[in-house]
Amino acid sequence: MLQNVPEKQMRRVRSLLAIAWLLLIASLIYDPISPLLTHPDTHWSLLRLDPRVFDPQRCHEVVTVQGQCFIERPYAIATRLFWGVIIGAVICIVFLFGHESWRRICPLSFFSQLPRLSGIQRQKQITNPRTGKIRLEGVKIDSNSWLGRHHILFQFGFLFVGLCLRMLFLDSHRLLLAAFLSATILASIIVGYLFAGKTWCQYICPMGPIEVFYTGPRALWGSPAHEKTTSKITQSMCRTMDETGKEKSACVACKSACFDIDAERSYWDSLQKSERKFFHYGYVGLVIAFYLYYILYAGDLDYFYSGAWTHDTEQVQRLFTPGFHLFNIPIPIPRLIAVPLTFAAFTFGSYGSLCRLEKAYKAYCLHHDREFSAAKVRHHVFSLSTFVTFNFLFSVGTHSTLELFPEWLEWSLQALVPLLSAAWLYRTWNRSLSLYHKESVASSLRRQLSKLEFDFTEFLEGRSLEDLKAEEVYVLAKVLPGFSQESKVRVYEGILREMLEKKMTGSQESLELLTQVRVSLGIEEEVHFRLLSELGETYLELLYGDRPLMPMSSLSTSSDSAFLASRT
Predict the structure, then answer these.
(1) How many C-beta atoms lie closer than 10 Å to residue 83's C-beta?
(2) Judgement on whether residues 391 and 469 belong to the same structural domain of the protein
(3) Three-class HEC string of 76-107
(4) Which of 188, 399, 486, 509 is the least buried, fewest Cβ under 10 Å from its Cβ?
(5) Which of 378, 396, 429 represents a domain boundary (last residue)?
(6) Measured between alpha carbons, how far is 163 from 355 in angstroms, rounded to an integer?
(7) pLDDT in tens, 91-103
(8) Which stretches of 430-524 are DSSP H helices?
(9) Higher pLDDT, 137 or 105
(10) Confidence of residue 186 (pLDDT cuts 50, 70, 90)
(11) Hey, which residues does 134 pair with through a beta bridge?
């Protein structure tokens, strides 16, 4: 949604939100004003406390914790604002407008980029093996390193520990929360100094995989990067401004299949990875456990629904008190142990249950679905679990905030949740890797056709090339009168180059689709290999990547011809 907003304006927005973030931290440390909003005598305030909480004889009518009255006092609202509004708003933005909107305004992303913008980011010397010239570039995470291979599990572990800390210390302890948020900002700056690109967002921040979870292949109102034809800067891709103020890419290739460049491609690229599966299925249980634990601990819904957990002044003192209260019986497991135990049990329980669901659904599709594929099965289970989690989160998790509003507004907002999530599920359900590739190649074909000196208007009945669907673009390229063989070869060469540049030649779907395009355009196989040879002379790295380079004259050997064929 925000991908087309100029970077100059977005920097101002990020700066303002970063300042607001710092003010929030400051209010956690010192805030003499907002407690007035929660005082029972402030009748116009939505946050004012019920007078019964001050009466020991009647406080049980409002909130109880493990059968005992919970005595409340006027409190500063920063913790309730952060946990009850800001966190929910971030997830809602990601689900509705895509990661691209949040990533362009995220305060932590802003802080992580400060070393680069200040010109103090750590760099290393790189020597060009051909020319011997030395250049400086930022340090990147090695994709083969432990963090490069297991960053999803690392981020999930970060999230797990963070939620445990929140439940035990940070829900209501303002100074500890201020320290935690400050430490997070400092960590993002340090990572931004040590490593180039969006290393913090891609490899460290626990919000990274959460954004993938709620976005899916695309958000409800997200933009499709693979169909963009007017600019190479897509979605939340790293960008900067040159001396003239014009935007240009600042990508340093810190991660392959970057989520910021093309969210859907990143989604399909990681779909079958075991760590991604563990995060997606485990996160469902983690969310359920987080909100359910308030009930398991307090014994009823009052404690959670009232929002009293955001200003419980005795939260830290209760670390060694009974962590469960079931059927009016306290369970003598210290809260310090009960919290991570509950989270772990639900995480692994959810993972196991959804794995069994995926297996059962796979068996069903194997016998009833002619277009069966393992990727399709997992995509459907992923989408369904996101749908259920989003509904649970915003129908149960936001209750303590929504109940502050008039009843008609609360019910209206609650009614929007299933409607919006159903619209997202409808938009997501039939997406597939083959459809993504088909649209990508059609977009590339559209770009190549637009470069030809040919008047298409008389054949399109007033429409432009951008208005055509993928199938229509293929038909147009195949049957267009006056479309010479030279033009077809030029178009095919452009498509081939783009697919190699995007590293989209590694899947069976893309290879079959490229073959279909070649046949539709009437390009012979000999011409295909000639184009590959010419591309190899100019773009050696496209064909070989990290493979040792060799003279293009040696491509006549069968092994190298097979290698080139495997690349396309």
Answers:
(1) 21
(2) no
(3) CCHHHHHHHHHHHHHHHHHHHHCHHHHHCCCH
(4) 486
(5) 429
(6) 24
(7) 999 999 988 899 9
(8) 433-451, 457-460, 470-479, 485-501, 508-520
(9) 105
(10) very high
(11) 127
Q: Judge if 315 and 227 occupy the same domain.
A: no
Indicate if 409 and 440 belong to the same structural domain: no
Domain membership of residue 527 as a residue range: 433-567
Averaged pLDDT for residues 261-279: 92
Domain total of the chain: 3
Q: Is residue 504 part of a domain?
A: yes
Mention every residue, 6+ apart, whose C-beta is less than 8 A from residue 28: 76, 78, 79, 174, 175, 177, 178, 181
pLDDT value at 557 more than 50? no
Distances (CA, A) of 413 to 181, 240, 389, 401: 29, 38, 17, 11
Q: Which of 375-384, 400-409, 499-508 has the highest mean pLDDT?
A: 375-384
How many CB atoms are closer than 10 A to CB 32?
7
Q: Are residues 26 and 167 in the same domain?
A: yes
Q: Are residues 406 and 458 in the same domain?
A: no
What single DSSP character describes residue 254?
-
Q: Closest by alpha carbon to 534, among 566, 507, 500?
A: 500
Q: What is the pLDDT of residues 482-492, one digit of tens each?
A: 667 777 777 77
Mean pLDDT of the chain: 84
Is the separation of the CB atoms in 280 and 213 below 8 Å? yes
Q: Which two tokens stand for residue 562?
A: 């097979």
What pLDDT was estimated at residue 174? 94
* 147 Cβ contact list (under 8 Å, min separation 6): 141, 154, 203
Q: Which of 393, 280, 296, 284 minimizes the C-alpha distance to 341?
A: 296
